[in-house]
UniProtKB/TrEMBL annotation:
Lineage: Bacteria, Bacillati, Actinomycetota, Actinomycetes, Streptosporangiales
UniProt superkingdom: Bacteria
Protein name: Amidohydrolase family protein
Origin species: Actinomadura bangladeshensis
Record-linked InterPro entries: DUF6282 (IPR046249), Metal_Hydrolase (IPR032466)
Length: 301
């Protein structure tokens, strides 16, 4: 891979112009947030971002966006919503999914905070902010006693296929995500993404490559590699992931919006710059920040 032809803020801004962030945690939320969805769009304008997908662990964000319509129409950065199938929306709830998608939703995340994998990793909520209100919660099962996907999950997959929306494996274990994606593919789902495989999910690169062979994309979060912000790993680790999986099936997103954490655009710039300095090509960086996420949101359909 060849490095960037230039350096500095101007060069990285040009490379990232038109980026799409498919994992933004703006508010409202019972978790403390740095900004709301309209402010997220305003932040995105600094990079002339094409679009943002906003996510809540607790409710469909589609209705948020409809209520903020007068503010969002002023932004050149489009904002889309979706639904995460945690206990707060009734778990694997086809009715909630149908409403979210038919009101304009672009994504369905299978259980995140309510998945057994997440609960096992964070039995007392470690690593996540304290909610501003008491949040009723329960574990949500995706598989039945027979090890097969529950009937409601099959209904949800059909709804995703019908709408052309993006399917996320949420915080499920990699074996269950593989099962979900395989069934989703059989039912006509073409947009599938595994989020932060090395955080909570615990997917090894070879497991991710198996998913990629089935058409899935692997999403990494700039918020977890930001050299000056909320950092879990070195950008060199991210480059290794990109080289292993290939930029054709890798996506960079922010996973930001939380109080006391960096602004998404700042993290994109810092991590993008770090990757270019490490030798990632400008074309590969655009592939994983602009081209692939635009496809997953169906922006060019």
């Amino acid at each position: 891979m060849t490095g960037p032809s230039g350096s500095g803020a101007g060069a990285i801004t040009n490379v990232l112009r038109g980026a799409v962030d498919i994992h933004c945690h703006s508010g409202p939320s019972p978790f403390p947030r740095r900004f709301d969805h309209a402010d997220a769009a305003a932040d995105g304008e600094r990079l002339e971002m094409r679009a943002i997908l906003v996510k809540s662990h607790h409710h469909s964000t589609v209705m948020d966006l409809l209520a903020m319509g007068d503010r969002l129409t002023k932004s050149s950065t489009k904002v889309f919503g979706g639904i995460a199938l945690n206990s707060q929306v009734g778990g694997i709830n086809p009715y909630a999914v149908a409403m979210s998608l038919r009101m304009g939703g672009k994504a369905v995340w299978f259980p995140t905070l309510s998945s057994g994998r997440h609960i096992d990793c964070h039995p007392e909520g470690g690593g996540f902010p304290t909610a501003t209100v008491e949040v009723p919660t329960a574990r949500v099962e995706v598989l039945g006693d027979d090890g097969e996907l529950v009937p409601e999950a099959l209904e949800v997959l059909d709804l995703i296929a019908e709408s052309g929306a993006m399917l996320s494996g949420g915080h499920l274990p990699p074996e269950t995500i593989a099962q979900l994606f395989e069934e989703g593919g059989r039912r006509g789902i073409t947009r599938k993404v595994i989020n932060h495989p090395n955080f909570v999910i615990g997917a090894e690169p070879e497991q991710c490559l198996d998913l990629v062979r089935g058409g899935a994309y692997v999403e990494h979060e700039v918020g977890m590699y930001d050299p000056e912000g909320y950092r879990k790993w070195d950008p060199r680790d991210l480059l290794t992931w990109i080289e292993t999986i290939g930029p054709e099936h890798t996506v960079l997103a922010s996973d930001l919006g939380q109080a006391n954490r960096p602004l998404p655009v700042d993290a994109f710039i810092r991590v993008g710059s770090a990757l270019l300095d490490l030798g990632l090509s400008e074309s590969a960086l655009r592939q994983i920040t602009c081209v692939n996420p635009a496809y997953l949101l169906g922006l060019d359909d």
